């Protein structure tokens, strides 16, 4: 089955700096890669996703890149703000398998 | 309701007891998922329903775990002979078509925190 590795497990940045979180996946058939944000004690919520037919997608301060050859994808947050502090999860799902496999999460702390 | 609803929000039980966790998905969502999340970990897939049928139950850890969705809406996750290792937050999510589909976003509930003493 699919295996998703995520790093770093924790990331601390100063407000205004950029943050990058990286994930690798094992199943070359995977074609959908969402990122979820989970605040303490809250439910995970989708922040951005990318499909295998594009290499990059951007939404305001958040961007995601995908390298299918290397089987890795990354989340980029620019101009970080204290409210970006949360745990971020990457995930992947493959053709014919409509269930997401999640990474282990990255705890992002933005220092004001 | 507007979102995915899960009950109970907290459940404390003794080792060996039977528990049921309920999920009420967003109206009209055909796909329903159960995940388990331990402290400091990502959600771990358990089972996925498309309509009334379990399309993928490969994540269920053993035969003590079972889930149903008899009318294609509300789902119940059932755990028999609970063990301390079953303690976790059980998350339910629903999706219009299923992850990867054109409207594949998963909407999660707040979760049911299960503690087995």
Distinctive features:
heterodimer; A: 112 residues; mainly beta; 6-stranded mixed beta sheet; 5-stranded antiparallel beta sheet; 11 strands; 0% helix; 62% strand; globular; B: 117 residues; 7-stranded mixed beta sheet; 4-stranded antiparallel beta sheet; 47% strand
Report on the structure:
- The complex is a heterodimer of chains A (112) and B (117).
- Helix content of chain A is 0%, strand content 62%.
- By secondary structure, chain A is mainly β.
- In chain A, strands 2, 4, 5, 9, 10 and 11 form a six-stranded mixed beta sheet that branches. Chain A has a five-stranded antiparallel beta sheet with strand order 1-3-8-7-6, with no helix packed on it.
- The relative contact order of chain A is 0.34.
- The model of chain A has no long low-confidence stretch (mean pLDDT 94).
- Chain B has 117 residues and is mainly β.
- Chain B has no helices and eleven strands.
- In chain B, the strands form two sheets. In chain B, strands 2, 4, 5, 6, 9, 10 and 11 form a seven-stranded mixed beta sheet that branches. A four-stranded antiparallel beta sheet of chain B has the order 1-3-8-7, with no helix packed on it.
- In chain B, a hairpin with a 6-residue loop joins β7 and β8 (75-79).
- The radius of gyration of chain B is 13 Å and the shape is globular.
- The model of chain B has no long low-confidence stretch (mean pLDDT 92).
- At the A-B interface, β4, β5, β9 and β10 of A face β4 and β5 of B.
């Amino acid at each position: 089955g699919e295996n998703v590795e995520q790093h770093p497990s924790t990331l601390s940045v100063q407000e205004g700096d950029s943050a990058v979180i990286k994930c690798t996946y094992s199943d070359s058939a995977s074609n959908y890669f969402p990122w979820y944000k989970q605040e303490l004690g809250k439910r995970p919520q989708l922040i951005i996703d990318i499909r295998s037919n594009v290499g990059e997608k951007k939404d305001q301060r958040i961007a995601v890149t995908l390298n299918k050859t290397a089987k890795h994808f990354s989340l980029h947050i620019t101009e970080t703000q204290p409210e970006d502090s949360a745990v971020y999860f990457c995930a992947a799902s493959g053709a014919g398998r409509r269930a997401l496999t999640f990474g282990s999460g990255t705890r992002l702390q933005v220092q004001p | 309701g507007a979102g995915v609803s899960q009950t109970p929000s907290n459940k404390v039980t003794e080792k060996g007891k039977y528990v049921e966790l309920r999920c009420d998905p967003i109206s009209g969502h055909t796909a329903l998922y159960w995940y388990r999340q331990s402290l400091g970990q990502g959600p771990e897939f358990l089972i996925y329903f498309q309509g009334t049928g379990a399309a993928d139950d490969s994540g269920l850890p053993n035969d003590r775990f079972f889930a149903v969705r008899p009318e294609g809406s509300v789902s119940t996750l059932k755990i028999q002979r609970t063990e301390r290792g079953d303690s976790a937050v059980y998350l339910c999510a629903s999706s219009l078509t299923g992850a990867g589909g054109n409207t594949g976003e998963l909407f999660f509930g707040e979760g049911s925190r299960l503690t087995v003493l």
